[in-house]
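Below is how a single chain appears once it has passed through the pipeline. First comes the sequence as given, then the structure the pipeline wrote out for it. We keep one example in the README because the format questions we get most often are answered faster by looking than by reading.
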Amino acid sequence: MAKILIVEDEDHLRSSVRDVLESQNYLVDEAGDGRTALEMLAVSGYDLIILDWNLPEVSGPEICRKYRASGGKSPVIMLTGNKTVDDKEHGLDAGADDYLTKPVHHRELLAQVRAALRRSSNFSDVLEAGGLKLDPVKHAVKLDDKNLDLLPKEFALLEFLMRHPNTVFSPEALVERVWPSDSETSPDMIRKYVSRLREKIDKEGSPSLIRTVHGVGYRFETA
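Resulting structure:
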């Protein structure tokens, strides 16, 4: 499940985009001005950024330039009312990956989001490992062709771990990457989610697919 940051100063538009993304099970954070967006990008990891051009304090192109200069690699979709070729060239040169002209049409937005995530190296259509098959579009998980019933946050946690196999994440890092920034989820809750996931995805008599690295965190092990 992708975690997306929307940066838009128009409250109605920001809420509308958030609602349509959440309806497709994306995790969404919001910022209403450029300075807040830069602060959020400095401390949180996002799989995609939807960035308005004209923002209070720091403009969208400037945010994009700073994000790329700091090593940020996630795709950026720029929202703008500017329609000239020069404007689009300026946004793309700042590091944006795509362009969406206002007014925003939800179907076009979702199509661009899906395309941007597909192009991202961490995303593929279906994830498979250890007998598990996770389909993010259908929001379905199978273990050896048997359907598993996962709660939404269990699904989100499993998807994140499967997208980053053999990488250790602390409970704090998992809270940051899998839950919205305003969530009250704690590291202790992560341990409970991991325990419940193991009960559902592990085969009897086999090592757990989600390994504990004592004193550090958890990793989804594929080898």
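The radius of gyration is 19 Å.

See the next section for the split statistics.
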